Amino acid sequence: MALRKIHFTACETEDAQAAHRRLVHQYGQYAVSQAEVIVALGGDGFMLESMHRYMASELPLYGMNKGTVGFLLNNYSEEDLFDRLDAGVITQLHPLKMSATDMHGRVTEALAINEVSLLRESRQTAKISISIDGYEKVEELTCDGVLVATPAGSTAYNLSAHGPILPVNAGVLALTPISAFRPRRWRGAILPREAKIEFKIRESKKRPVSAVADAVEVRDVASVHVEEAPDICLNLLFDPEHNLEKRILDEQFLL
User: Fold this and answer.
1) Which of 15, 44, 220, 250 is catalytic?
2) What is this structure's pTM?
3) Is 118:211 a contact under the CB 8 Å cutoff?
4) Does a cis peptide bond (omega within 30 degrees of 0) precede residue 183?
5) Does residue 144 carry a catalytic annotation?
6) pLDDT tens for residues 124-177?
7) Which end of the chain is less enclosed by CB atoms within 10 A, N or C?
8) What is the DSSP track for 179-218?
9) Which superfamily does CATH assign the domain made up of 6-93+233-251 to?
10) Per-residue pLDDT tens for 93-127?
């Protein structure tokens, strides 16, 4: 399918805004409601913001790097953009759905493309129990926190916490402790994408914990439920020679 109706969006940096003006002049600009594809100019953080912002549109999203690392983006070039879009390889991602209940009984729901993280709020370690599909698997994890990562997010915070890198199409999630003190030898688990994960905070008043789904933070949680949202699909476009599956595979061989 030829993609000709583009909606360009850019982060606030001077470089990205200048590129936005040039690309709009060269290729035109369509409203999101009329567009066939969204082209995002920025870094990985802005790409993540754009994925959340345009999730409901169901349009394919093609990022071009105007940031630093650019793991989720293609190389920047103003030439032959229509041809690059037509040749793009689609990678489909499903976000995580978080339902967090705080100590006052308030429930907050949010979506996470990278990960849902539970993090201690004070100087004291957190104590968290972990259940999978209704069965308690870890009675008490004493730690700085714990996270659930998607394959796309497995090379982000999950990797820095020594979690596994997951191929995009593996159909699994990473459950990774953050600075675990007890049990010391538990390094986490790889879960099927259908898994329903529940965290319960022990001694929550004495050892408060926050839950973070990408950019949404809930303070003083009592319990957190996490599962994949299979009904929500994000379509990312990548140049064939530099697609996301290949990048994640290559990450496993970086020294």
Assistant:
1) 44
2) 0.91
3) yes
4) yes
5) no
6) 999 999 999 999 999 999 999 999 999 999 999 999 999 999 998 889 999 999
7) C
8) S--BSTT---EEEETT--EEEEEETTTTS-EEEEETTEEE
9) Probable inorganic polyphosphate/atp-NAD kinase; domain 1 (3.40.50.10330)
10) 999 999 999 999 999 999 999 999 999 999 999 99
